[in-house]
Amino acid sequence: MNKIIKFSHEAYAELKKSKWLSRQEVVQSTILVGIVVFLAAIYVFAIDWGLAKAIGALVNRGA
């Protein structure tokens, strides 16, 4: 039990040393992540759509 209490105190001390992001930094980071995810989704969609069209054209050509 002593080890658990010691660990908890040390963990809390380390958390106090951390620099936490401000609310504005968190909001800006969240918006940036959303934009990057959106752009990545468009990129994957475009590649998928293009490959589907290309494979469809090859399959239909052979039939």
Explained architecture:
The chain is mostly helical and 63 residues long. It has a domain at 20-63. It is 89% helix and 0% strand. The protein contains two helices and no strands. It has helices at 2-17, 23-62. The longest helix is centred in the C-terminal third of the chain and has 40 residues, at 23-62. The chain starts with a helix and ends with a helix. The model has no long low-confidence stretch (mean pLDDT 93).
N-to-C series of helices and strands = HH
Report on the biggest sheet. Answer: none
Radius of gyration, in Å, reads 25 Å
Q: How far from one another are the termini?
A: 73 Å
Binned strand content: under 5%
Strand-helix topology:
Elements: H1 2-17, H2 23-62
Protein name: Protein translocase subunit SecE
Function: Essential subunit of the Sec protein translocation channel SecYEG. Clamps together the 2 halves of SecY. May contact the channel plug during translocation.
Subcellular location: Cell inner membrane; Membrane
